[in-house]
Amino acid sequence: MQSILRKLYRLIFKRVTGCELAEQLGVRFGEGCKFISINRNTFGSEPYLIEIGNHVELTAGVRFLPHDGAVWVFREEEPDIDLMMPIKVGNNVFIGYNTVMLRGAEIGDNCIIGAGSVVTGKIPAGTVAAGIPAKVIKTIEEYRQKIDPLLIPTKGMNSKEKKTYLLKHFGIHEENH
Questions:
Q1: Domains of the chain, earliest start first
Q2: What is the pLDDT of residues 67-92, one digit of tens each?
Q3: Which of 27, 51, 129, 156 is the Cys-Cys partner for 22 at CB 3.0 to 4.6 Å?
Q4: Around 126, how many Cα atoms within 13 Å sit in the side-chain half-sphere?
């Protein structure tokens, strides 16, 4: 029922999901993707040069720039030049908040890209990368080992259950909230 209501709301208010917008723009992507808070600017002026695999999450503020506008400084001498390259994202990838993917960037399968990163080259499969420019900082297995003791079982809880659980888990007294 909730799914039908969402579809009706989008139809009435002309809203589309992130994946629907990406598809309309010509981005090629696989199944099970989640694109959060994207807009027409997310994929730059050549969205058809972007290929995204299966089970990829793009968080808010992620930008893909398959072109390099810096050739502007050469335009008076050569008005017809451009510099563009495809961008490719593998399967099972998480791209953190405000990350920028520049022309020619490639991310392998099973990767995490840290928030605020700028991806300029190739990130190998099975790694966590972050920074400006993004560099590998650990393997996906090392990341999992580090966070294992911190993981909490809140997926599937409604907002009230989640709040109660988290306040108790972190020792925060309810009367303050």
A1: 2-148 (2.160.10.10)
A2: 999 999 999 999 999 999 999 999 99
A3: 27
A4: 3
